[in-house]
Amino acid sequence: MKKRILTAVFSFCALLGYSQQALTLEECCDIAVANNKLCKLSDFSMQKAQLQAQNANSNFLPKLEAMGGYLYADKDFGAELMPAVAAKLNLNNTYTGGIQIEQPLFLGGKLIAAKKMAKSGVSIAALNKERTESDIRFETEKAFWNVIKAKELQKVSEKYLQTVDELYRTVESFHHTGMASQNELLKVKVKVNEAQLAQKRCENAVRLTKMNLCHLMGMPINKDIDIIDNSSEFSQTVDLNEQSIENHAEYKILSENIQLKEQEIKAVRSDFLPRVGLVAGYNYMNGVKLNGTKLISDDVFAVMVSVKVPLFHWGEGLRKIKAAKIEHQMSVVQRDEFAEKMHLEVSKAVNVLDESKMEIQLTESAFNEATASLHESRKNYETGMETLVNYMDTQSIWQKTWAEFVSAKIDYLIAKANYLKILGKR
Fold first, then answer.
1. Is 216 exposed, middle or buried (0-12, 13-18, 19+ CB in 10 A)?
2. Alpha-carbon torsion 309, 314, 320, 325, what sign?
3. From the CB of residue 69, how many other CB atoms can be counted at a distance below 10 Å?
4. Rounded Cα distance, 50 and 45, in Å
5. What is the DSSP letter of 426?
6. Strand order in 63-71's β-sheet?
7. Which of 20, 103, 276, 409 could be joined to 62 by an S-S link, Cβ 3.0–4.6 Å?
8. d(CA 412, CA 150)
9. DSSP 273-296
10. What are the tens digits of pLDDT across the range 245-261?
């Protein structure tokens, strides 16, 4: 993935340096992922989760602290220890310093649960990044194929305009020789005007779809780019019998969330179990005087084991554990609900993809028949065996079936991308 992102960055820099460059589908998707702000936010979330996981691991290690203090007192403390015996305690200029180390020995499983929760957090962050990239790639792929569609429809409109222009010149020639009426010439002129308008709309569609693709790739929308039509996508078949959703990023996130909730139950339970810790320290104190004689000027090393056992909290622990278990059950239900919806989405995607394949076959057959009919109709018109109206209708049908064939191919590619995205394969 890093290599692909670097390639995308180099491609993006090259695009900024040259007026135009042809991009493949994969390059467009990589550039979009590299420049998208949502992907950058996902990277930050990933880094944050990794740091939290490192902190969770460090909780198993001893904590070392240093401490020190200084006391200033403007007078002595007087006390009568026994009859006729007085004492003065001087605390002025007393100072102390030391180091202390703390090591948790047993916290009811809290540290282990926290470590596993942090690990799940890293997994969820990675899956969120995967989901974000998948969404961006899918939207970019749709925009890519829409550019291809607009360019192909532009070719259709240009070819249709050439055809009606040729017909206009033929009818105009017939009109000059008296073989065609003025009304027939005007009818053809209307078709020419309609074809010119359609061509203009196709030119605008190409420009707008390119602007949308540039926007998704994080480039200036008026950047002059070109794309390479990857016709090999049509030859790559997909297995429509495979309908598992376990690779879908959202499903994996919800599954990981279940694991997270299981560890949260253990973490809550640990708050109401015995805790054992070890504390060791080295300290030095100097400055306390009694009747002018220094009492303390020495160091000391001490070790202490502390034990804390919760005894009675009015059922607080049981209620918190039950609440954590309920959250775990909720996470299971959420995943099951999502799984049902995704199975429905997969079925819809399969139907759309299957229908798209059939639509390609039908529109291709219709286009081939319309092309043959156009050639036959032209011959018949030129020999006077067919009316001008019928010939123009045949031209319109030919142009319509060609455009439908182009749209069907692009719809299939988009449906294929959607199907693979739902299965978590793109």
1. buried
2. positive
3. 10
4. 9
5. -
6. 63-71, 94-106, 275-286, 297-308
7. 103
8. 15
9. S-EEEEEEEEEEEE--EETTEE--
10. 889 999 999 999 999 99
- Return the structure tokens found at 238: 């997909």
Q: What is the pLDDT of residues 267-324, one digit of tens each?
A: 999 999 999 999 999 999 998 887 777 888 888 999 999 999 999 999 999 999 999 9
CA distance 86 to 92: 19
* Residues 27, 219 contacting (CB under 8 angstroms): no
How would DSSP label each residue in 220-286? -TT---EE---GGGGT----TT----TT-HHHHHHHHHHHHHHHHHHHHHHTTS-EEEEEEEEEEEE
Average pLDDT, the chain: 89
**The one-letter amino acid at 115:** K
- What is the average per-residue pLDDT within 32-56? 93
Q: Which two tokens stand for residue 191?
A: 């078709």
| Pairing verdict, β 94-106 and 289-290 | unpaired
Written as six digits, the tokens of 377 are 């109709």
